[in-house]
What we know:
Blueprint: E1 7-8, E2 11-12, H1 16-19, E3 23-26, H2 33-47, E4 51-56, H3 63-73, E5 79-82, H4 94-104, H5 110-124, H6 134-140, H7 143-149, H8 155-160, H9 164-181, E6 196-200, H10 210-228, E7 235-240, H11 250-258, E8 262-268, H12 278-287, E9 290-293, H13 300-303, E10 308-319, E11 322-335, H14 339-343, E12 349-354, E13 357-362, H15 370-393, H16 396-407
Parallel strand pairs: 3-8, 3-9, 4-6, 4-7, 5-6, 7-8
Antiparallel strand pairs: 1-2, 9-12, 10-11, 12-13
Amino acid sequence: MPNTSFLDHDWFFLPLPVISRPSVVIGEGGSGKTETLLKIASLVARIYGFDIIYIDAKGDDDLAARFVATMRKAGKQRIKLFPTSPYYGWTGDTRALYNRLMAVQTYSEPYYENMASMMLDLALHAPGYTPRSSNELLRNLTLDLLKIRYRGEPEQDELERIKPEDANGVYNRYRAFFRALHGKLDAGFIFDETDAAYIKLDTVAFAKEASSIGRYLVEELAHYVTVRKPRSRRVLIIIDEVSALAIEHIADLSERLRSFGGAVMLAAQSEEGLARTQDERTRILKTSHLLILHTSNAPERLIERAGKHKAVQTGWSMHGEEGTGYATVSMRDEYLIPPDDARRLGVGECFIICQGTGYKIHVAPVQLDAASLQEAQAYIEQEARDSQQQASTSPQAPADQDQDEADAPDLL
Length: 412
């Protein structure tokens, strides 16, 4: 029997205890998945007062203006966008910085990962100061400077055993990453100063770095939610096309943030798009309280969450080619949501599966007039101009760049 706590006349709504827990949205491209995410963000912001952080790993060119207009309509005032505006990603202690920086890179061999871990630990804990910009970190990642900073310290012997080519390899990885960003993570807004933020992982501007930027900002977001955010504030974190970020153990992250008022909603085009391994995909689905399913060509494993019901099957008894006059009746278990129904959903239609049952609904799009969209686009353009002006007038930029070049080791 359907749970009527989700229904109000002909309208479906998500109760606060449901939306506050991890959730998953799955649907093929063009099925209306992004519109559903925007609708949920709008309602959760307006009705429950959540802050909204939307990470768009698709790099949708049209979504930013709609997000800004939607958040304004929901009553949000402090709205920021990245990379339109730069983000300051160096808050927190050395452990927080270490986690962000390790998340940036992926390694094919444990040796190189261990070497990066050692070099970062030494660079972040070097006597004197903690790096608070990419230039300061890169200066501290040079083997010669680390030997100077740790002179007379127990780590001095450890540094003597590091091969110059290994140290240069670590330096070059982070140099390439931060140079491509042109200071986009060294100054700007922080999550603490916003009540709505849109993070576009621009695969055009940052073709090779987009997933690394996403992982860096997710780690920064985790620090904000668990350490800096007031417990009274609640935030909905939407990650659209989560597989593009290649985040390890994201199921653990979702559960950890929930304890601090951070609800995580992961979206993908298929079950396989949730994570790289089947074990991680299974963990994500097991820890997700809510599943929203748009059109899917392979819905069988997903619809199991809605459960089954007893169905009556009738038939006629036959003898040869003639009926015997006797009828047959049997009971069998059938999926509450037939797989073919999930395959045939129209644009904007979806099944919401929660608490062992499912509902077929049609998502009403967010209504935005032309004037609101124009104002939102004008706001984005002004943010971009302000960002460019601040970058061009910063007196630190040329000096930092020159110093970085002077301290840079030879490239491999």
